């Protein structure tokens, strides 16, 4: 939803989904003071909140009981699962050409469509025959994700083209509304943040173990973003690096900040300034912690590129110096004001925001629960 430069009354909401329900953080255009609404859906594990402005409807995708709908900005909720035969829902997205058409990605790699604002769902069966679909398996329990479709991105200009990401299966594109699919992984197998002698040992064993590791995780895309200015430009943060495509995902080039800063989960692209916009990602690490597969210990920061990944800057002013946390794949977003705000939430329950493209960060909320998803909308 785009903002109007003359509408001084327009407000922003940051939707925060946690394992203990959801909250909304509300502010005006200045985004200096924030009001918390909620928690709501306290018995549900909320992963994604999305808002449809024409009908003023708030949707929640939950890991526990599917999709919920609110017509009163989160005060009351109604389950809306007719035809949704998998209840662990990860993400919910709108068709840009018709706000009554929604897509939901779920556990086990299923994709569902609704043409009536979620009253009824039907599976997108064209995905059954997508390239290497059988390689996804049925489910797996690595980390906390398992097999799921966790990302759905619509092409902002081309009707019937959209992208999905299957955890462990990589990104896919359809050009005909879901009937046929292309696997988009050319160029995404080279290096990995954990392919080091410190982890895998030395000599032949290190080489062998690294090769086996890459075979398993190089296609594990954690987040995908699509440029609104030039939809052929895509970026992805995956298990082993940050990549850019200039041909709608047909091929990828490695633009990782460094060999030490390859691994991470969230990614956001802000495009209201500069030719290439401002690309953000927050690295995580897979060493030094016996409790978590991936986490951040101590000081952390967002990394920003304003030239399509050619160079990166560390943006950490205002963030904690000591922490043991992680920012998950869906836990970073932007708003749609002329100067976009950027927001992220942590697994230790904090929500941070910046209104100057990451130059300075401030704490918007704390103790909200383990943050799984962060979204934003104007209203």
Mean pLDDT: 91
CATH topology: Methylamine Dehydrogenase, Chain H
Query: What is the terminal-to-terminal distance?
Result: 8 Å
**Percent of sequence in beta strands:** 35-45%
What does it look like?
The chain is 5% helix and 38% strand. By secondary structure, it is mainly β. The strands form 8 sheets. The protein has a 4-stranded antiparallel sheet, with no helix packed on it. A 4-stranded antiparallel sheet has the order 4-5-6-7, with no helix packed on it. It has a 4-stranded antiparallel sheet with strand order 8-9-10-11, with no helix packed on it. The longest helix has 15 residues.
Key features of this structure:
mainly beta; disordered N terminus; 379 residues; single chain; Methylamine Dehydrogenase, Chain H
